Each structure stands twice: as structure tokens, then as C-alpha cells.
Fold this sequence. Notes:
Blueprint: H1 13-26, H2 37-44, H3 48-60, E1 64-67, E2 71-74
Antiparallel strand pairs: 1-2
Amino acid sequence: MKITIDAASIEHPYVQVASQLRRGIETDEIGPQLPSIMELTEQTGLAVGTIRRAISILIDEGLVATAPGRGTFVVPPGERRA
């Protein structure tokens, strides 16, 4: 799945990234592991901090979990918090 940023959008880039990743998770286009932060920065041209902020939103929503040194993984639907 290609993540693209609309520079003319009123939405902040990190919100755009989080929305596209969320959509990819919900449609099973992404998983079981998210692309790496470096892959996402190369794809979008955004800073590492911006990508981390987008992923943080998905962590807060219970959609993904990080495993230090391994990556960010989609939480299976049955294991997501309500």
C-alpha cells in the first residue's frame, strides 16, 4: 500500500498517514506488520517524528503494538481493546 500526502489538505500530515494506515489495516492491505518507519519516511518524504506521531495514534486506538527492535504489528481484531 502506497501512503501519499496531500500538501493542499487542511489535515496535518501525521493525521493523513494515520488515516491511510488505519484504512489499510481495516481492509487487510497492511499486516501483520506495518512498513518500517524508514520505509514510510522514504515513501512520504516526511520526518521520522511525523511518522512516529502517526503510529502513536494507531497505538492509542489499539490497532497496532510495537515490539522494540522488531517493528510495529497489527493487533488481531479479537485482541483489540474496545
